[in-house]
């Protein structure tokens, strides 16, 4: 049963290869053309839907250029002047989406008030790039910003003529920054098959990230509508497919039950429920978040890879009694960044660190050699998927270990050295002319665990 559910859910979520997009600068800039190579790929078990729309936003949030990738292998050429940009790629946008010709960073991809139920997954990727006198590269990783939902009802009366399930809460708007907003509900229609089972197929919605999730089950017979409710105690998570199965029970005694399966990237969760007259479902304790341990605010909780006050915890260090240090890693990722040995941009990484602020937290820094070694040792191999799941859920770029079979170097040691998130990785000296380094900042905060 479980294997069947997982297979069904993963059919539209298979892996995709890489494409290359080139961005020369515009005629308004001085000097030679600047070539920015953008490598695009999808997250594990994800297939992008074409066309893929690519946008470049300047520091003021204005769209400077856009192009459309109509099929795999297409090359895109945008013309950009020297400067810093954020490049965003979107896949799976409905034809009815009202994207303006020259959007801003905060423009709506899907406007508030429209029916936010989709027939295909919306994927998003973002990266920063500086167009200057050096060769630049940008890596874009497409990942879902939606939740997949498949619904199935059995044992409805034979004379039922219509059925639907409302899911709440669900967000109603999405902007280019990847921020979901608004709160409402979506109604998913069901169709009866020859076997009498009512199914929805796979649909996609913008999760609100709030629990509990309410299901309102509605079906019509003889012109009258029956409404039943079911509460799923957890929030729906972006990038996770859910399958809800329920069986109608006219008499709750010895009731038939259904189940809920969560498959794909997160650990499967199976939960039984029934709906109908006099049916009472016992409460279910929520599972810990992805990357978490037993839950709760104690030193014994596995905090690595989880969100703390909206910040990503990379390491927990110096635990003494009920206190510890959290090494946070920035949600933002810069790519490409020059090393401190560069002749043209030696202070680029330091400038990013000086200007970075995440919510209320400032004073982030480039990882030291010791911090870099600790990060590489802890997050190498399969473990990297845990923290990347948290970053995907937050609509942030993932941490790379390899791209196109080659290790991805991150700057550390005041941008004088680099390290990689690979097995047996070591800190090594950065190059002088290499312009393809990545950067993630860190910050240490001291926390006290509440009883």
Would you write up a description of this structure?
The protein is mainly beta and 451 residues long. It has 3 domains: 2-144, Immunoglobulin-like; 147-276, Sandwich (Immunoglobulin-like); 307-448. It is 8% helix and 40% strand. The protein has 4 helices and 32 strands. The strands form 7 sheets. Strands 7, 10, 11, 14, 15, 16, 17, 18, 19, 20 and 21 form an 11-stranded mixed sheet that branches. Strands 1-2-9-8-5-3-4 form a 7-stranded mixed sheet, with no helix packed on it. Strand 16 and strand 17 form a beta hairpin. The longest helix has 10 residues, at 369-378. It is globular, with a radius of gyration of 24 Å. Residues 1-33, 251-273 and 278-300 have low confidence and may be disordered.
């Amino acid at each position: 049963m479980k294997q069947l559910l997982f297979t069904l859910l993963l059919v539209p979520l298979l892996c995709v290869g890489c494409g290359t997009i080139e961005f020369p600068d515009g005629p308004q800039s001085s000097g030679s053309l600047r070539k920015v190579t953008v490598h695009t790929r999808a997250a594990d078990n994800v297939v992008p839907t074409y066309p893929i729309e690519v946008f470049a936003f300047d520091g003021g949030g204005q769209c400077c250029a856009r192009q459309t990738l109509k099929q795999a292998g297409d090359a895109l050429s945008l013309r950009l002047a020297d400067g810093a940009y954020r490049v965003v790629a979107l896949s799976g946008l409905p034809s009815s989406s009202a994207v303006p010709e020259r959007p801003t960073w905060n423009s709506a991809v899907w406007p508030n008030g429209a029916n936010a139920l989709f027939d295909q997954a919306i994927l998003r990727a973002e990266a920063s790039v500086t167009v200057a006198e050096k060769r630049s590269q940008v890596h874009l990783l497409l990942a879902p910003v939606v939740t997949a939902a498949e619904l199935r009802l059995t044992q409805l009366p034979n004379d039922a003529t219509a059925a639907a399930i409302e899911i709440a809460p669900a967000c109603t708007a999405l902007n280019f920054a990847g921020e979901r907003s608004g709160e409402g509900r979506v109604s998913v229609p069901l169709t009866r098959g020859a076997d009498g089972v009512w199914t929805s197929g796979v649909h996609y919605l913008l999760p609100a990230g709030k629990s509990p999730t309410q299901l309102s089950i509605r079906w019509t017979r003889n012109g009258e509508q029956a409404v039943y409710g079911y509460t799923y105690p957890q929030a729906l998570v972006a990038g996770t497919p859910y399958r809800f199965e329920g069986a109608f029970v006219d008499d709750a005694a010895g009731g038939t039950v259904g189940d809920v399966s969560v498959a794909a990237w997160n650990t499967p969760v199976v939960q039984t429920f029934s709906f109908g007259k006099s049916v009472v479902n016992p409460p279910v304790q929520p599972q810990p978040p992805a990357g978490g341990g037993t839950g709760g605010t104690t030193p014994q909780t596995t905090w690595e890879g989880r969100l703390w006050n909206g910040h990503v915890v990379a390491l927990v260090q110096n635990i003494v009694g009920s206190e510890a240090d959290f090494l946070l890693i920035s949600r933002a990722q810069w790519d490409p960044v020059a090393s401190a040995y560069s002749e043209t941009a030696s202070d680029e990484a330091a400038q990013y660190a000086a200007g970075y602020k995440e919510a209320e937290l400032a004073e982030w820094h480039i990882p030291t050699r010791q911090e870099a070694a600790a990060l590489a040792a802890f997050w190498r191999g399969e473990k990297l998927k845990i923290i990347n799941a948290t970053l995907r859920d937050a609509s942030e770029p993932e941490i790379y270990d390899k791209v196109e079979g080659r290790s991805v170097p991150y700057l550390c040691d005041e941008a004088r050295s680099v390290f990689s998130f690979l097995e047996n990785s070591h800190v090594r000296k950065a190059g002088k002319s290499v312009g393809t380094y990545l950067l993630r900042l860190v910050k240490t905060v001291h926390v006290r665990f509440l009883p």
